[in-house]
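Run log // design_07
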């Protein structure tokens, strides 16, 4: 009975490890979504506080006229609102989070599968022992 209790505790612990991995992967996916939002959506910039007619800016990534990249020297207010380092920083932070999430998820999943396999093998051994006896 002790080995069964240990096995159930082992499975619970690895189920929690796998759940942490899923949670970290969800956080990484949210970081990717935030980066996509920063790079792919158009936005508006106030030229002054409480501006009633803000400047409309194209997305940082899919721009044709370069409104997001030209800068203030050409009378464009869009460049400083959404900087590349912010978007790439969010993307860079998602890499270690996703690596940790994958490692935890795989570790928990493999441990659960190995535990289930070991239990199945014990049951098969019991059936084989009964047939021999």
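design_07 sequence
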């Amino acid at each position: 009975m002790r080995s069964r209790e240990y096995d159930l505790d082992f499975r619970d612990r690895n189920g929690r490890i796998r759940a942490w991995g899923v949670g970290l992967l969800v956080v990484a996916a949210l970081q990717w979504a935030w980066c996509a939002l920063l790079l792919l959506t158009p936005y508006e910039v106030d030229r002054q506080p409480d501006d009633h007619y803000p400047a409309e800016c194209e997305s940082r990534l899919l721009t044709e006229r370069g409104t997001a990249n030209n800068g203030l020297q050409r009378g464009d207010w869009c460049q400083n609102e959404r900087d590349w380092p912010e978007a790439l920083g969010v993307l860079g932070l998602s890499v270690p989070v996703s690596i940790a999430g994958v490692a935890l998820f795989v570790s928990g999943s493999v441990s659960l599968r190995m535990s289930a396999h070991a239990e199945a093998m014990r049951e098969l051994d019991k059936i084989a022992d009964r047939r021999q006896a």
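The chain has a mean pLDDT of 82.
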